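input
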Amino acid sequence: MKIAMARGRLKGKQPKLSPAQEAHLVKLHRAGEHTGSKLAELFGVARSTG
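output
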């Protein structure tokens, strides 16, 4: 695994949200405008992701 990581071939699971989407989700959550369930629905992810 160390060799694969050094060569940049170790991928792993890709994130569901882009960094911009994640920042937007956090902003909405902190503003208290939506519930966690509603945010998950809006972004198309599971509640545990959001």
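quick obs: Residues 14-50 form one domain.
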